[in-house]
Amino acid sequence: MLEIVNLHASIDDNVILNGINLKVNLGEVHAIMGPNGSGKSTLSNVIAGHDGYDIISGDILFDGESVLDFPPEKRAHLGLFLSFQYPIEIPGVTVSNFIKTALNEIRNARGEEPLAASPMLKMMRDKMKVLEMDKGFLSRSLNEGFSGGEKKRNEIFQMAMLEPKIAILDETDSGLDIDALRIVANGVNSLRSKENTFIIITHYQRLLDYIIPDFVHVLFNGRIVKSGGKELALELEKRGYDWIKKEQE
Amino acid sequence: MKDRLSAFYWLHETQFAQISSNLITSQRRKAIDIFETEGFPTVRNEDWKYTSLKKLIAPNYVLPSPFASFDEEEQVEYKDIKKFLVNDIDCYQVVFINGRYSSWLSQTTHSKYDICTLGSAWKKYPKIVEENFNKLTKDDGPLVQLNTALAWEGLYVNVPKNIVVEKPIQVLYFTTGSTPVFNQTRSLVILAEGSSAEIIERHHSLTNHETWTNAVDEIQIGSNSSIHWVKLQHDSPQASLTQHSKINQEKDSKAIVHTISTGGKFIRNNLDFSLSGPGAEAHMFGLTLGNDRQLVDHHTRVDHIAPNCSSHETYKGIYDDYSKGVFNGKIYVHTDAQKTAAYQQNNNLILSEKASIDTKPQLEIYADDVKCSHGCTVGQLDEDALFYLRARGIRLKEAKALLMLAFANDAISDIQHPSLRVKLSQLIGRKLGVDMSTVL
Ligand SMILES: Nc1ncnc2c1ncn2[C@@H]1O[C@H](COP(=O)(O)OP(=O)(O)O)[C@@H](O)[C@H]1O
Ligand SMILES: [Mg+2]
């Protein structure tokens, strides 16, 4: 489904990604862990098509097709979703308007009719219920004045509405209290299927108690230095990242 | 140009004198004197520093005579203007073509109040006109004086005490013909104590030739009265407008003025408020979308004369291509105007390297118990926000439009009719090159 081949990327002449290799199949959940500054958000942004980075070498493939030349919107049309570590505040655009626009843009790109107002609203209500969100959310300005937890929940709400094939969740757990974490995890779990895949980026293993990953990768200095099963996350939780750093030296 | 205009005045002076009183004739004469002495303002004049009239006055304009009837080229039918009307709101309608009243396209009234034309009011209501005409404009510059000298047609509204005008008044000024045209329009709006009215105004050229309208409005708002005025400046690319709107507000009155400048070649707005009765409230909203080589210049001035008045100003501008904007907001707080509250905001987005905005707040405060704030910003579209929208599948053009509309939102959200707001967003969408139904 998603394949990253020997990817090197830099920003302002600082090389951040140093040869990433990763293969993700439908139905799988991958976790990427790593200390702050190891390049996790950079990797997410590059996969989503942020044009602030230079791709030095390597490739990103969706279903075998290179997407390096595709703008972010086209990657979204192909089924990619990135839950932002820091969702952007956009005053003047309401949550409902934003989601409606996004969903219909994606449908349009796939040659589907726009979803009419009333089924759209019903779909929004249903998804919000699962995420235990208040209806008032819809008419608020996008992320403006939202608490950290509200922003993250709003990201997951968008994901639920857009039904992506590949979802990357960049530190969705940070800023969530334990109840919110459980709600968000339930939301993610309810979307898991054989037809999609999740990449969960986190540096605590907390979230992985709720969303059980099939694979865990450790990112360090822009490279995946270790991969394993869900037990690797527990080991990282117990031992921290220092032993990884030592191993690398 | 200047000489032709003054010759035009002298040629028609007797005719002007026939329609109005001696007092007004002497005012016309004084006005033409000032215009002849000063001529068109140049960039040496501080108020015109960033806006040169040189190119605007260059074409060989035809000056339509107020006293001639419509010629063949000026025959405009309903189907020609239909798309410029706000159709889904029931309105009074006053239509002018090349500065002359078109009765067959208009719906006026004299029943509870007068909604008609200045051209008919000179003779019909000479006393009221004499009491109000040129009361707010005496000290203005040469463009206003030129208009005073040649004043003949425009909107006339007179609402008596405690009466509400139930329907909006839609006023449309069209220019047309096979040559460049320069015309003057003059409005007089009088709201007596406790009354209210709403005006939707639009200037539009129906020709590809250069047109220039020099408009002056005098608005008197009595105590406890209110006016809501929407100016839609979405003219064709060869059309220019200079407009001076003067508003005087008495005790506890309220005025809301929206200036939406999205089209045209050259626009200069002067919008002046005199808050002369205590408790008066003025709200100004502006939205400018410039592209090509458009120039849009907003000069606003609020005179806080009486105590306890407030003024609120929110102007937003988005400039692309080679377009140029000017914003000059003057707030003048006079000595007696204690407890004044005056707020001013001017925010701009610059979308291309060649576009520019000169923005300048000007505060002069001579009272000591005053709350004033002002701020201006000039920036670009937020790249992070764009990425966020695009990562959700929204195409670049649509994402930009959505951000621009969000930026512009404050400037149009107070427009009362939902259908007018929708029309505006569609118009903005068209200007931004996107179908608004996909991003709204
Ligand atoms: N615009 C930038 N210019 C230079 N360095 C950057 C920029 N953005 C991020 N970095 C650096 O890239 C590295 C990886 O950052 P990031 O991907 O955000 O890490 P993580 O998400 O794992 O915490 C960090 O060392 C950070 O300082
Ligand atoms: Mg990060």
Commentary on this structure:
- The complex is a heterodimer of chains A (249) and B (440).
- Chain A has eight helices and twelve strands.
- Chain A has helices at residues 40-48, 72-77, 95-109, 117-130, 148-162, 178-191, 230-239, 242-248, and strands at residues 2-11, 14-24, 29-33, 54-62, 65-66, 80-83, 90-94, 141-142, 166-170, 197-201, 215-220, 223-228.
- Chain B has 440 residues and is an alpha/beta fold.
- Chain B folds into two domains: 2-277, no CATH class; 384-440, no CATH class.
- In chain B, β1 (92-97) and β2 form a beta hairpin.
- The mean pLDDT of chain B is 94.
- Classes of the chains: A alpha/beta (249), B alpha/beta (440).
- At the A-B interface, α2, β7 and α3 of A face α7 and α8 of B.
- Bound molecules: adenosine-5'-diphosphate and magnesium ion.
How many DSSP H or I helices of chain B?
10
- Total number of strands of chain A: 12
CATH H-level homologous superfamily name of chain A:
P-loop containing nucleotide triphosphate hydrolases
Largest sheet of chain A: 6 strands, mixed
Task: Kindly state the percentage of residues in helix of chain A.
Answer: 25-40%
Overall 3D shape of chain A: globular
Order of strands in the sheet with most strands of chain A? 6-9-10-3-11-12
Which stretches of chain B are poorly predicted, pLDDT < 50 over at least 5 residues?
none
Structural class of chain B, by secondary structure, is: alpha/beta
CATH class of chain A, named Alpha Beta
Total of helices of chain A: 8
Number of domains of chain B: 2
Q: Helical percent range of chain B?
A: 10-25%
Report the β-strand fraction of chain B as a percent range.
35-45%
Radius of gyration of chain A from CA coordinates = 18 Å
Mean pLDDT of chain A: 93
Element-level helix/strand string of chain B: HHHEEEHHHEEEEEEEEEEEEEEEEHHHH
Task: Provide the gyration radius of chain B in Å.
Answer: 21 Å
